[in-house]
Amino acid sequence: MNTKTLISGIVTGIVIFFVGYLIYGIVMMDYFASTMPVYQGLVKDPMEIWAIGVGNLIYGILLAWSLNAAGISSASRGASYGAIAFFLYAIATGFIIYGQMNLSTIQSIFVEGLCSAVMMGIGGAVAGWMLGRPVKS
Predict the structure, then answer these.
(1) In total, how many domains does the chain have?
(2) Range of the domain at 13
(3) CA distance 119 to 64
């Protein structure tokens, strides 16, 4: 992984952290709270924000690395790639978790997939744009 890809990934991770806060922490918070069963100790209060940030940085680096490996260097192609790839990832993970635990509904799996597609589509646009910028010498 080159420096440009790593920096793109870090910036993308920061962007998706804030977009994720808007989507999951404000817009969709009540929906997901209403569809998730309540178990003693399931939800941390307060949340470990640092861990969410680290996870988002890793997502950003993964997305930038994937785009770079696929030769994608534009915001529009990055947005498409990020949205489709992470929609599929989210619903795949959702179905696996659905098969193992009582934490979600079939409907919430697809809502999560759409939220993830929006968040990672925006992240993909950022990563694609950054990867397409010329290197300053």
Answers:
(1) 1
(2) 1-32+73-137
(3) 14
SS3 content of the chain, % helix, strand, coil (to 5): 75, 0, 25
Task: With respect to residue 38, please indicate whether it lies within any of the assigned structural domains.
Answer: no
Kindly tell me the number of DSSP H helices and DSSP E strands found in the chain. Answer: 5, 0
The pLDDT value recorded for residue 135 is: 77
Q: How buried is 89 (Cβ within 10 angstroms: 0-12 exposed, 13-18 middle, 19+ buried)? A: middle
Answer whether residue 110 is part of any domain.
Answer: yes
Q: What is the pLDDT of residue 41?
A: 86
Contact partners, residue 16, CB within 8 Å, separation at least 6: 56, 59, 60, 119, 120, 122, 123
Q: Are 54 and 9 within 8 A, CB to CB?
A: no
Residue 116, in any domain of the structure: yes
Q: Hey, which bits of the chain come out as E strands?
A: none
pLDDT of residue 55: 98
Nearest by Cα to 77 from 89, 88, 63, 94: 63
Q: Phi/psi at 47 (nearest 5 deg)?
A: -70, 160
